[in-house]
Amino acid sequence: MVCQQDPLIRTVCELYYKISALETLSPCRDVNNLLTQLVRLCIPPHPVDVSALCSAVQEIRSNLIRLCGEAEGLLEAHFSDLLASFNRPLDHLLLFPYYNNYLKLAQLEHRLLSHHLPSDRAPETVAFIGSGPLPLTSLVLASNHLPEAAFHNYDIDPSANSRARRLVLPDTDLSRRVHFHTNDIMNVTAELGKYDVVFLAALVGMAEEEKARVIAHLSKHMAAGAIVMIRSAHGARAFLYPVVDPSDLRGFEFLSVYHPTDEVINSVIVARKTTGSIEDPTISGQVMIKKKLQPPLLAGKKCCEIKPFLVDLLNPYGDIAEGLAFGQKSS
């Protein structure tokens, strides 16, 4: 049986038991070492179909995604606090060890988005659902790719929005264009109809049925013609993040899905509430475009959102670790 014979699955399970036994998931040597092992294990291509796994491994996968999500949130919160200690926090984003991954992911998503929009129409209003305490996607897109657009970030956690807001306030331009809303997205209705583009973070809706409800809610309330960018996972990366199957995008026209083959973990699905599609042969990586190639079912049923754990984290913060209070080992 695949659950018993596949070496990758056996190792994933072994790492899960070690991670779940940790006393804390806050940034420290033990946490970073185990999660680095997990991510390095899951990055290479692997023909695993997580939907076909036995129930015991399915449960481990669900729990593992939640543990990774918790660790990711704690890491972001820590670095958000660190950045807020500077007079101009956004001048120091390189202190976050995965900032370059966000640069890559934002560039990818902007290129995908641009190929499905009229060349003379840049988005004016963008929503990001599940922005967290360190909203790097919105910050990078607003600074580097969509300098005229307004960004509305939604998170259910008021402390996450409070942290994120502190980073933006000292910047005259971004504090005018980047906004934060504390709300469960399932309670947001009319506002969703105002956005040209909606990004759905990978960890919004970790279980398959939760993700389906969120997507159905977006379909009901987004404006016709608006674009949705949904972060997903493919292959063994589905042990790190939830998977969205393009065939489940009821109420949306599937446009394309991009599966990275490098250290950027998340797949990106592009869809919109209208007809039409554009083929794009220029973007590197595994891209499937509607009417050109029908996508297979993604492995199983979470986005950078991985950011964490992609480098050698035995000393995860490099030279800045000295003198900072977060470098303790977990016991």
From TrEMBL:
PROSITE patterns in the record, alphabetically? Answer: NAS
Q: Which CDD domains match?
A: AdoMet_MTases
Pfam families noted in UniProt: NAS
One MF annotation (Gene Ontology) recorded for this entry: nicotianamine synthase activity
- Reply yes or no: does the keyword Transferase apply: yes
The reactions it catalyses are: 3 S-adenosyl-L-methionine = nicotianamine + 3 S-methyl-5'-thioadenosine + 3 H(+)
**Domain of life of the native organism:** Eukaryota
One GO-annotated biological process of the protein: nicotianamine biosynthetic process
Q: What is its EC number?
A: 2.5.1.43
- List, alphabetically, the InterPro entries matched: Nicotian_synth, SAM-dependent_MTases_sf
Q: Which UniProt keywords apply?
A: S-adenosyl-L-methionine, Transferase
Q: Does the keyword Cell division apply?
A: no
The record describes the protein's role as: Synthesizes nicotianamine, a polyamine which serves as a sensor for the physiological iron status within the plant, and/or might be involved in the transport of iron.
Name of the protein:
Nicotianamine synthase
Which species does the entry assign this protein to?
A: Trapa natans
